[in-house]
Amino acid sequence: MNASTGIEIRTIGDDDVPAWTRAMHAGFLRPPVVSKEEAEIRRAGMDLDRTQGAFDDGRCVATFRSFAQRLTVPGGASVATTAVSNVTVSPTHRRRGLLGRMMANDLRAAKERGEAAATLISAEWLIYGRYGFGPASWITEWEVDVAGAGLDRRYAGPVDGGRVDFVDPCAVRELGPALHERLRAARSGFVDRDERWWRWATGDLRPAGRPWTEPFYVLYRAPDGTVDGLLAYTAEDVWEAKRPHGTASVLDLIAVSTEAERALWHFLLSVDWITTVRSGFRAPDDLLPLLLPDPRAARVTTHADLLWLRPLDVPALLEARTYAHPGALVVEVADPDGHAGGRFLLEAGPDGARCAATARPADLTLAARDLGALYLGDESVVRLAALGRVAEERPGAAARAELMLRTARRPWCPDVF
Questions:
Q1: From CA 117, how far away is CA 406, in angstroms rounded?
Q2: Rounded to whole angstroms, how far apart are CA atoms 384 and 389?
């Protein structure tokens, strides 16, 4: 209990789930109504030991939840993180430090559990930097004018001997998880998807009354029959003056080979009556625009940060990934909250890394949130130095760090959690 506010922050129990969910709905501008079925479904996916609420005179006025997550880092290894989600503060209780207190509780517990970092999807840019988070990966969304793309509309299937087929949700739940794990092992920025994720994404876990549009599901099978790609999309059937103006919206497109990726895009862009394709959240360096004979037919509609990362264990994080160029750096990390602060010697290269606390003079000094932005290789050390967010203590250190940290493909997290 905080005597100055009279507001209690605590982990919740089973009986609190309906009120907690109602408060979360209100924070996200959803109707503050929770059915018994929804509360039961939500409770089944919650770790109550990692779910906090703020209570004022018994009423839930703020929500916070985290869960265990695996994040793929450059080189293909994965690290344990605490994934922060469902963060809300009632508009009647803003500016009282409730989020700060819940965040401090969760980060302290994550550090004690040995999780190397915290992750979240930031709804607002200005909130999470003060808690040590930085934007670690970005997404881009395109809208494709199919008629202007220049593709051969007589497309009749993959040219590599593979095939695409419609499948039902049961097949997606059966085959999708293994496909996703194959891609996650190869793509920095990916996070794991549990069984609940697949059930929710395929409509198998929805409260009655919650709107649901059954997507189309398509699998790509390689010539040997291996499932190498999955596409989920919805379509709008619109006609004007006896002409089709349909829009297909991608919900998910994952592929472990360029052949699969090309085949699924070409399939979708050749569906009859579809004149516009919305790509969904893709990596900023996605293949899509350049797959088109005329890339200008793909118009960027969204380009924004998505996955934010907060270091908790700097040596564990820096040792987990690989580095494009060999080198050594002494990095001093400033962290007022004490989770990731210190001076560390990183000796690294394409085959791995060693990192440990050191008393040697620093080459670079930066805040924990900026290390979070740099960690997956998407942000530029040189750019942050130019902005004054990285201090170069030794000439040439920023350029050397740039060569070590940046990756050939940009990290990508397609999932909102």
A1: 19
A2: 5
Number of H helices, E strands in the chain: 12, 21
| Non-local CB neighbours of 230 within 8 Å, separated by 6+ positions | 172, 175, 176, 179, 180, 217, 218, 219, 220, 252, 253, 254, 255, 264
DSSP string, 189-204: T-B---HHHHHHHTTS
DSSP-assigned beta bridge partners for residue 227: 221
CB proximity list for 243: less than 8 A, separation 6 or greater:
none
Full-model pTM = 0.95
Query: Is residue 155 annotated as a catalytic residue, yes or no?
Result: no
Q: Catalytic residue among 67, 216, 267, 417, which?
A: 417
Residue 365 is inside which H or E element, if any?
strand 364-367
CA-CA distances (angstroms) from residue 161 to 91, 259, 264? 57, 10, 14
The one catalytic residue in 55, 128, 133, 323 is 128
* Rounded Cα distance, 134 and 25, in Å: 26
Contact 143, 279 (CB under 8 A): yes
Q: What is the pLDDT of residues 2-24, one digit of tens each?
A: 444 689 999 999 999 999 999 99
Cα 95 versus chain centre, distance: 27
d(CA 270, CA 379): 36
pLDDT for the residue 207: 83
Task: Tell me the Cα Rg of the chain.
Answer: 23
Angle between the N-to-C axes of helices 17-27 and 36-44, in degrees from 0 to 180, rounded to the nearest 10? 90
Q: What is the dihedral of CA 292, 298, 304, 307, to 10 degrees?
A: -30
- Distance between CA atoms of 363 and 352, rounded to whole angstroms? 20
In angstroms, the CA 192 to CA 169 distance is: 19
N-term to C-term CA, the chain: 30
Task: Give the Cα separation of 346 and 332 in Å (integer).
Answer: 11
pLDDT tens readout for residues 309-326: 999 999 999 999 999 999
Torsion, CA 213, CA 64, CA 28, CA 308, rounded to 10: -80
417 in catalytic set:
yes
Question: Which residue type is seen at 246?
Answer: G
d(CA 382, CA 390): 8
Q: Tell me which amino acid residue 94 is.
A: R
Contact present, 235 and 248 (Cβ < 8 Å):
yes
